[in-house]
Amino acid sequence: MLHSLSFRQKLFITFAVIFMVFTLMVLGFQYNREKEFRKDQLENTLDNITELANNFIIKQSLQDSGTFGRMDSLMEILPGPDARVTVISPRGVVLYDSEVSELGSMENHLERPEIRSSVAYGHGSNIRESATTGNMYYYYAKFYTNYFIRTAALYDVSVRDFLHVEKIFLIYLLLMFLVTSLVLLFITRRFSESITKLKDFAIRLRRGDELNQSISFPRDELGTISSQITSMYKELNEAKKDISIEKNKLFSHLSALNEGVAFFSPAKEKVLANNHFIQNLNLISDQSTISAEKIFKIPEMEPIVGFIDMHLQQTGEPVSGDLPQTEIDLQKGNRYFNVKCVFFQDKSFEIVITDTTKLEKRRLIKQQMTSNIAHELKTPVATVMGYLETLQRNSLTAEKQKYFIDKAHAQAIRLSELIEDISTLNRIEEAGDNFEFERVKLRNVVSEVREQLQLQLDEHHISVQMDLSKKIEVNGNKSLLYSVFYNLFDNVIKYGGDHIEVHLASYLEDKKYYYFSFANTGNEVDEKHLSRIFERFYRIDDGRSRKTGGTGLGLAIVKNAIHLHNGEISARKYKEKGLEFLFSLGK
Question: What pTM did the predictor assign?
Answer without folding.
Answer: 0.40
